[in-house]
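Dear U.,

For the methods section draft, I wanted the exact inputs and outputs in one place so we can describe them consistently. I've listed the two proteins in the order they'll appear in the manuscript figures. Please don't edit the token lines directly; just add comments below if something needs changing.

First protein:
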Amino acid sequence: MTEANIWASDPVLARIGSLLAEMGLDGIGPDDPLVPSGLDSLGLAQLTDLLMSEFGRPEVPSRLAQRQVESLTGRVLVEEFAAGAEPDSSIPLVHLRPVRDQDVPWLREITLGLDEVHRFIFRGAAVPPTRFIDDLFSNSLSCTVAETTDGSDGVGFLTLMAADPQSLHASLGVVIAPHWRGSFHAMHAIHGMVVHGFRNFPLRRIYLEVPDFNLAPRESTILTQCGRIEEHLYFDGRYWGVTFYRIERDDLPRLAALIGTVA
């Protein structure tokens, strides 16, 4: 496995690797001591700022502050920030807004990129622009863009679709931008869309259909599994299983407790 692929094995490590590359330190691996490898104090401060934002931590973990700085690696930083990390409920990580015309190029990028095209309804089909718009928004009850609270970065696209007005359920479609997958920002985006659905529509249940290659472990912790089909979808030379999740209206307090927000 190449150094780049080792960084890419975890979404947060990937963000650290990208930041190090921007600093001209792309030869450092996840398990290499950062300071002896050339990271200065300003660069270390940038890494800790990134991780504080990523894990919703208002300050550096006390255990990390007690470690010798020369022993810190990218993987150690992630593990220390992740240990017991919960977003501060007073600090919102994302907000949802309506989709705008100018979002379409970005939506195409995160849903039709060569590495992303399998992740949503297109299932490998790089469709033309007109069909892309029709397919993305057809059968949608409500759709939003999740972005960071300062509006500087898009976190993902979320849609409630295939609503059944008789049985009062709908399906949740989610596309998270690659560099936000597996983050608390992604969890907050999903939670925010679920809250939006239950508060604005008389739904009693929301379903989510997830191929095995598509959902980060952290995001799956806020969902309840209700079914599974083995070897159901074809991607990357093999068949993958699909897990079905449900979220009940009564689940909102539990979801809020899991991700540290107030329902």
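Second protein (the one for the lower panel):
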Amino acid sequence: MTTALAALAAAVVVIAAASVLLRRPEWGLVLLCLSSPIGLIYIGAAQVITVVAIGVIGVMIGSRWGNGDPPFPPIAFSGAILFWTITVLLSVLFSPYYADAALFGLWLIVSGLLALSVPGIADTRERLKPVVVAWLVSAIVIVVAGSFIQPAAPTDPAQASAEYGGAVIEGRATSVFGQPNEYGLYCAMLLMVSLAVLIGGRGWIRWLGLVAAACTGLGLVQSYSRGAWIGAAVGVVVLVMVLPQARRPVAITVALGAFLFAGYAAVVPDDPTVTLVTSRVGSIVNPAENPDDDRLVIVAEGFRQFGQYPVFGVGPNAYMLEGATNRSLEEPVGAVHAHNMALTVAAEQGLVGVAALLVIAAVIVVRCIPVLPVVTRAQARRLGRVPGPPDWVAVVLAGTIAALSASMISGLVDAPLRNALMRTTLWFTIGMAVACAEILRRQFRVPADRTAAPTVPATAPEHNATAVS
């Protein structure tokens, strides 16, 4: 095993160096995606996905320096990530658990720089395309082969069982993840991207989007994660809001899926999957009393920690350490986070950490989302159709925005970012959103005043602007 891990580490270094030397830095991002299924294997104190992420950051800096560019792209997102990095360092320095917080603080900084590396590397359509393909392929592998890569809880519906009216289900699928809520959120996010590619892709990449959507949809169901289910539902709504062309295919897909499930449930009402899904959905509307649910006291402890360490927090990954002290409200529970993303950040990184997240969110809202209607109008004006055919980069941007919306909703009831793969996926998705937006801004010359008409390059080939195949 040690030899295999050493070989893997050497391969990462070689591919990262080759990406720079061959002027193809996007292959570093491709490697990151393709290494996701084995991303949670440890190499010393770090995991594979984190080691590859560090290599990707090196690829970005090296390739940009080699081209005579600054090491970080001159975009607003760079300032947001710099602010995030500074706030993480401050949270570590002022933490009462400095030694324990330092390592996780390092991983948070790596995650932020990874997000910046995506637009720093995938700055053209040609560089973005293989990254999107590798991203979808990795999602398929994680769902299909995850149980073979890392044995997990039983996924056979006959082995799963519901208790307390569906509030607790034993034997939920986890794939390569540590627990089912992480797996559910991953599937929900990649389902949004897959649906977007299915809608806007052409040729074989559309079929890839179809397979990825089917796999991630199945994984989402098998996770039985209520937070991920609700997040996926909100993500679908966001997708059809930001991408008008998605409304009809999404409506048809949802209606067909509901019809098929209802028909199957009517024919085979005693099927374990039908029973588990219906009981789990019922527990959302009418939650049963679960004597093992300590969520309220866990959330209260998060507020206590934030109140005691309001500015810089208790330190990255230190919620559990502070929760084990005699000051804790949930000392016997031993929770690792506050069951809410924002509250966990507030407790561990204080107001400065929350402010950094708000700045990153503001960049996405101000720089990414407004690009989509501008591109849609430009395409319609150029091709004489309303709405015009979806630009494939705009479609991926819409999918990433929907994925981030799903994670935000799921984060209201959970904080599954202790897992390195889930954490990397979230930050990578943020980076993909920014990368797509910056590509579209440059191509369509989106003005600062979004009410002004965009300039559409007359020489831009139609197939390159609207489809990827």
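Candidate sentences for the figure legend, describing the second protein: Strands lie at 42-43, 46-47, 161-163, 168-170. The first strand starts at residue 42 and ends at 43.

Thanks,
Y.
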